[in-house]
Design a protein that fits this description.
Number of strands: 0
Structural class: mainly alpha
Distance between the termini: 13 Å
Number of helices: 3
Radius of gyration: 14 Å
Length: about 55
Amino acid sequence: MKTKSLIKTNPYLKDAAKRKMLVARSVRTSCGVEGIELKQDTVMPEITERKENL
């Protein structure tokens, strides 16, 4: 049975602008938890490839 990806089913991820903001926030908070300091002007990495069937 093939399942839909989260990006297609999660309402928070469907909107590209909201997704970008939420991913950036997630990266910042995860780095904070791990003790990694990010510069304020750090550019968030772009996701260019996705594996569909994991």
